Amino acid sequence: MDRWVVLGMMVVLAAGPVMGQKLSGVENYSANRPGVVMVRTEFTANVYVNRMKMDNRAFNSLLDSIQRLDTSGAIASEQKLDIVLKEMNGNPARYFKSTFDYIKQEEEITSTGTGFFITGDGYVATNCHLIERENAFIRRQFILSAFRQITEANILALEGAWATSFNEQQRNLLYNTYASVYSRLFSMELYDLKKNIYIVFRSDRDGRGAVSEKKLASIVITGQPMPGKDIAILKIDGDTNRPTLRIASGVLPRVGEQLYVYGYPGPVTNNDFVSAESALEPTLTTGIVSAIKNSVGGWPVIQMDANINHGSSGGPVCNERGEVVGLTTFGSIENTGGLAAGLNFAIPVTILYEYLDTAGITPAMSTASKLFMEGLLYFRNEHYRSALRKFEEVQGLDAAYPSLDSYVHETKSLIGTGHNRGTGPVERLLFVFLLLCMAAAGILLVRWFLFRKPGTDRRRG
Q1: Are 231 and 247 in contact (CB under 8 A)?
Q2: CA distance 39 to 313
Q3: What pLDDT digit, counting tens, does each position of 429-450 carry?
Q4: CB 76: neighbour CB atoms within 10 A?
Q5: Would you state the pLDDT for residue 188?
Q6: For 107-134, how does the pLDDT look when each residue is reduced to its tens digit (9 = 90+)?
Q7: How confident is the model at residue 308 (pLDDT cuts 50, 70, 90)?
Q8: Could you tell me how far CA 216 lies from the centroid of its own chain?
Q9: 3-class SS of residue 438
Q10: Torsion from C-alpha of 118, 123, 126, 130, nearest 10 degrees
């Protein structure tokens, strides 16, 4: 075998960890968690509604009729209040009147989902249904939000005027009354609707642990919500070394392959017992590829049994090598109207590539993410000195790289307690170089002795 081929093979073997190895669940999460982001769409608008007033004549007439019924004073105050509320609920048009005055209610509606960085300079892949909502849906949400706030204010005003405190049943009855009033007697109008899309992600700053960063995003290209190709590419400005995820080739995963799914499920993100500080820790669920189906549009979708929920849409679905093979997009609906557990679907990256090609975007891992992955693989093999060098290189590129500080501290601690195993790539390359130099010197020396001409010894006696 040619000595240069041998040399090349030795150098490759000494060069360090090979990307694309199978990762454990812990390694998969450590590698990909930094690049998973929350997609937050904020709609703002002004809702105008007629100010209502109570018809005092009708209301006083109602009180008088109750008083006439209670000639003996046997009806308790609580019962009288129930009679008043039930009568108002049964005939709201009699007791409530509109005015020519309008209330302007400033409203904001927020919808959240999941996405992930596909390039170090801030391109994000997600679902388009997170950012594109039908106008009718938005109008309903705004009017519902305004109704809740105005109704709550009206109920509080009644409690103050009547010097009472409504119980839960009475409050629900009043809500129904006001719902009937606003739906039949009053108009609500929506003005000045605006939409902003933000990418919210975690950074580790100055040893303070995780902090939240929120950056305005622009839309690069979108598909259509299901049954369309539910893909959107967004862009934020800033650093060129964002943590990224690696996109798999365009080959569909096989049925039975292990999957790792990242997202921000609403029941967790909005849980009253979970701290706001941990909201940016993505949830990891696992499962397998259950089937490859075709959408009604004729293109493939990945069926999986990993649990997802509202808020996880747009999140990366990764294989055992940590590569993104799809985007979580939709689930199956039970007869009860809820999501069916373990019957969920992802859009494969083959569809994502269509939009990337159209937009002229080439997905690529950032230098920081490559170095971090190499550090993780050295860490796995207990080559802690080599791992530390990689982690410190990442620090030089992005000191706020999520979870980097914890790995640096743990690696230093392990080195300090003598847990390093073997040599890293620098030591191995140096060792190979020295061996090659020694071999070359030996070959030259042997050649000199074997092929030197007689009489060339110039030593004098």
Answers
A1: no
A2: 10
A3: 555 566 666 666 667 665 656 6
A4: 10
A5: 72
A6: 888 889 999 999 999 999 999 999 887 6
A7: confident
A8: 15
A9: helix
A10: 160
Q: List pLDDT tens digits, range 144-189.
A: 777 788 788 888 888 888 888 888 888 888 888 888 777 765 667 7
Distance CA(116)–CA(121), nearest Å, equals 12
DSSP string, 369-437: HHHHHHHHHHHHTT-HHHHHHHHHHHHHH-TT-TTHHHHHHHHHHHHHTT---S--HHHHHHHHHHHHH
- Tell me the angle at which helices 384-397 and 404-416 cross, rounded to the nearest 10 degrees: 150
Task: For the chain, give the mean pLDDT.
Answer: 83
Share of the chain above pLDDT 90, in %: 43
Structure tokens at 406: 């914890």
Partners of 195 in the beta sheet?
A: 43
CA 429 vs CA 82, 393, 439: distances in Å: 86, 19, 15
Between helices 168-184 and 77-90, what is the axis angle to 10°? 20
**What is the C-alpha separation between 321 and 120, in angstroms, rounded?**
20
Bridge partners (DSSP) of residue 47 are 105, 190
- HEC readout, 77-101: HHHHHHHHHHHHHHCHHHHEEEEEE
Is the Cβ–Cβ distance between 319 and 325 less than 8 Å?
A: yes
Residue 307 region by backbone torsions, left for phi larger than 0, else alpha for psi between -120 and 50, else beta: beta
Q: SS3 for 445? A: helix
Contacts of 196 (CB under 8 A, 6+ apart): 41, 42, 44, 216
pLDDT tens digits along 2-29: 444 344 444 443 445 666 789 999 999 9
DSSP code string of 120-170: TTSEEEE-GGGT---HHHHHHHHHHHHHHHHHHHHHHHHHHHHT----HHH
pLDDT above 80: residue 421:
no
Q: SS3 sequence, 263-330?
A: ECCHHHHCCCCCCHHHCCCCEEEEEEEEEEEECCCCCEEEEECCCCCCCCCCCEEECCCCEEEEEEEE
pTM, two decimals, is 0.76
User: What is the pLDDT at residue 52?
Assistant: 77
Of residues 375 and 443, more confidence is placed in 375
According to DSSP, the residues that pair with 210 across neighbouring strands are 204
Q: Are 282 and 36 in contact (CB under 8 A)?
A: yes
Q: Which residue from 103, 130, 123 is spatially nearest to 191, judged by alpha carbons?
A: 103
Q: Per the omega criterion (within 30 degrees of 0), is the bond before 282 cis?
A: no
